[in-house]
Amino acid sequence: MSEVSSEIVRQLIVEIGEAGIAEMGRDSGLAAAVDQHAAAVRDVIAASGDELVSSVLLDYLHGFTDAAIERGWWPTGDFDWETVRVVAVCWAMQELDAR
Length: 99
Hints:
The chain is mainly alpha-helical. The protein has four helices and no strands. Helix 1 (3-24) crosses helix 2 and helix 1 crosses helix 4.
């Protein structure tokens, strides 16, 4: 990934994560979906043998988002599967940092 595309992915993650976490407080369905995605991501990380820490979550998030964009995904403002996954990882990182 080039430095420019890396910065675009980083900014995209920040924007999606902040908006999604804010929306979770207003939408219980979204909150439940985010919780399910976060659990799935925790399982993936545990299965890989990595420790659940913010740096591992961030690596996962960058890889996931970059791969989704390469497949043609781009956020539309809806909470589609990929968007919910990004929000879930951002939320999990926020929860880890709060401990």
